[in-house]
Specification:
Length: 605
């Protein structure tokens, strides 16, 4: 049964709290024994008072009852003490572990490759984190508060009732069997349905967070009704799957309740008959009545536990599914820590596919000396971003090798590799924190002066001065309170603060207007000095001065060389240049068909 395996794993997850867990489990065993001892002692005392059963001969005096009474009081006191211990620590333990588990999951998810994050919605990732850890907390709490002692009572102590009076004991055993069969039946009936319910829960989280991330689109395209309608439709599908499950469990609880009542009645009837025939004392009857009541309570707890495990199971399974996804990019044993690379980069026959079917880049080879600037051009989707993603190991290539300063990047520890490479992404990707905190992502110990200098160089000072609280202004989710160009300049400043020997600019200036871009261009050129820089850009000015241009087409490099060489060749690059670069550079329309064989370089400026 996967539920049992899951449960064992959840219990094993206690980690550093395992010792406390063991103490609580022992206390639970004690509580189960005490709960069992009380009715037995009670029955014995009644027998002594009514003169039935076997006891020391002679008149019943208070002194002769004292050992029994003392034992009874002793168990009572123990129940109180252990109860306090369990109540106090079970709650703390489960809350603590819930948060620890959540943090473990969070760290794990952040380390998962981008491929995981492209295919799994962040809304679902978040839902699984919250609900999975919550579900586990319930199981820990239930286990240490009630479930374990209930299981002990049933599993170990129930057979003992057979020794006390086998006829009455047998009735209790039958009761337990009926409960077990009923529960198993309901489990079988509802298992797949509950799995489906969880899929709908996940879809709900995805839909909601997807919509919340796109509120401007929803409002401007007047889609509020449609989006709400779609959410409601998922809700009704969820309910349609959940309702039969609930009905089955309601049926189970009614049936267990009925069989419990029947059992108590039968014990009383059978007990009376046995007593009249001299086969049971009054104490026996009283004792079995209270044992039966207690066991029924326990049985209901166990059924409740199975129900809870069943409801939380799919959530926890999803949690573990994500937790078990291993990061495909990780440190090799013995990976080196490189403090600072010089920055010579070499790609050798690198091929990569995101899904194992469609190639994203094929057989890409090139090299760049330290300090050089390499421009990557080509139509969108031709593999430029993917190529540079491989350089900072956003993913690893399926074949080929990438070396920096002659060292295969898979032999370098990931943290030091990424410390050496600064990336300005196409989307600025800012945090909903203050400007200062966003800059500190680049360098945690950056001083105010360094931040201001980086902002200056990224042409970002002027709009930050306009912010009411300057560096401490909070810029909204994904930096939404800034304009596209402002966001991009801030993300450039962030990369500058990192001051890496290798810099990747993936369409970093594409969100800027021509005037700002020209200003920024000067800054960027200065920034590129002394670092190996890879630029993906569609604008001529950026590409002109590159030491080398790589022309991508359909996942491959089809041409490479300097600007002059490529223009002289009048091949793919010249064609691209005519179609693309003129637009952004000066605002003129693209050139018409070229008059001569070569594109006159001057006309491009
Ligand atoms: P470029 O940067 O040149 O526009 P990309 O390197 O982003 O192109 O994309 C190359 C190919 O890989 C495209 O066909 C694109 O659809 C695909 N691709 C890009 N990113 C992903 C991803 N995260 N998952 C799956 N396919 C992707
Ligand atoms: Mg791209």
């Amino acid at each position: 049964m996967w539920l049992i395996r899951l449960y064992v794993r959840v219990l094993g997850q206690l980690g550093s709290d395992l010792k406390l867990g063991a103490v609580l489990a022992l206390a639970n065993i004690g509580l189960a024994i005490a709960a069992f001892a009380e009715p037995i002692l009670f029955g014995r005392i009644i027998d002594r008072l009514t003169g039935g059963g076997a006891g020391p001969a002679g008149p019943v005096t208070f002194t002769s009852l004292l050992p029994l009474l003392a034992a009874w009081v002793g168990f009572g006191l123990f129940t109180i003490g252990a109860g306090v211990l369990v109540a106090l620590h079970a709650d703390r333990l489960s809350h603590r572990r819930r948060l620890v588990t959540m943090a473990t999951y969070f760290e794990h998810v952040l380390e998962l490759p981008l491929a995981f994050h492209t295919s799994t919605h962040s809304g679902r990732v978040l839902k699984v984190m919250l609900e999975g850890s919550n579900g586990m907390a319930w199981l820990w709490l239930g286990f240490f508060r009630d479930h374990f002692s209930a299981l002990v009572s049933l599993g170990v102590l129930l057979p003992l009732t057979l020794l006390l009076n086998w006829r009455l004991g047998l009735l209790l055993v039958v009761l337990v069997l009926v409960f077990t069969v009923l529960t198993a039946l309901v489990l079988r009936k509802t298992e797949t349905l509950q799995g489906r319910v969880e899929t709908y829960h996940s879809r709900l989280a995805e839909q909601a967070s997807d919509a919340l991330g796109n509120v401007p689109v929803i409002q401007s395209f007047t889609r509020v009704k449609q989006e709400t309608g779609e959410l409601r439709s998922t809700i009704s599908q969820l309910l349609a799957a959940q309702t039969p499950v609930l009905s089955w469990w309601a049926l189970a609880s009614i049936a267990t309740r009925a069989s419990a009542t029947l059992t108590v009645t039968s014990i009383f009837l059978l007990g009376t008959w046995l007593n009249l025939n001299g086969k049971a004392t009054i104490g026996d009857v009283v004792m079995f009545m209270s044992i039966a009541t207690m066991l029924i309570g326990r049985l209901e707890q166990v059924v409740g536990f199975v129900n809870q495990l069943f409801m939380q199971g799919p959530k926890i399974r999803e949690f573990y599914e994500i937790l078990d996804t291993s990061p495909t990019v990780h440190d090799r044993p013995g990976a080196q820590n490189i403090d600072r690379f010089a920055g010579a980069v070499e790609f050798q026959n690198v091929s990569f596919s995101y899904d194992g079917k469609r190639t994203a880049i094929a057989d890409v080879s090139f090299s760049a000396e330290a300090g050089q600037t390499v421009a990557l051009v080509g139509a969108t989707g031709s593999g430029k971003s993917t190529t540079l993603g491989l350089l900072h190991r956003a993913f690893d290539p399926q074949s080929g090798a990438i070396r920096i300063d002659g060292i295969d990047i898979r032999d370098v520890c990931l943290a030091s590799l990424r410390r050496n490479i600064g990336v300005v992404f196409q989307e600025p990707m800012l945090f909903a924190r203050s400007i200062r905190e966003n800059l500190q992502v680049g360098r945690p110990d950056a001083t105010e002066a360094e931040m201001r200098e980086a902002l200056d160089r990224a042409q970002a000072s002027e709009f930050i001065l306009r912010q009411a609280e300057g560096l401490d202004s909070v810029i909204g989710e994904r930096g939404r309170s800034l304009s596209g160009g402002e966001r991009q300049r801030l993300s450039i400043a962030r990369a500058l603060l990192k001051n890496p020997p290798i810099l990747i600019l993936d369409e970093a200036t594409s969100a800027l207007d021509a005037a700002t871009e020209r200003k920024l261009q000067v800054a960027l050129e200065e920034v590129m000095k002394g670092r190996t820089t890879f630029v993906i850009a569609h604008r001529l000015a950026t590409i002109r001065n590159a030491d080398r241009i790589l022309v991508f087409e359909a996942s491959r490099i089809v041409e490479s060389g300097t600007f002059e060489e490529l223009v002289a060749k009048n091949g793919r690059f010249a064609e691209l240049a005519r179609a693309q670069f003129m637009v952004g550079a000066g605002g003129e329309p693209p050139l018409a068909e070229p008059a001569g064989p070569a594109l006159p370089a001057a006309s491009l400026a």
